[in-house]
Model the fold of this input.
Amino acid sequence: MAARAAALPAVVAAGGLLLHPALPGGAEKEGEKPRRVINIVAERFYFAPAEIKLRSGEVVELRIRSLDTNHGFMIPEAGVNVVVPKRGKGDARILFRAQRKGAFEFLCSKPCGAGHTLMRGRIVVE
Ligand SMILES: [Cu+2]
Done:
């Protein structure tokens, strides 16, 4: 149990793990850790995967890594907006609880070139 509790800090400052307790709803339970890590790649001008399926109630860690320049990763409905550092400078991590069913759009929030507005995808909670 001790190892489990130490696995993930609840909140780490910018550049580390950002705890996000919603899609709207409950606070994170102490000692809870994500069931899955979902790796997302950002590159001009797409996210891969562009569709992420979660089960309702599931807690996951999203790790977004850029293959080129700085990007942003925003989930408007969940109030998430983080910088995805440029290639070789680490990743952005979000602890994410799929609190309710539905489709939630994510998009690049940092202008990155001509196809910037094409950089979008969605999280589907079933
Ligand atoms: Cu962009």
User: Anything to note?
Assistant: DSSP finds one helix and ten strands in the chain.
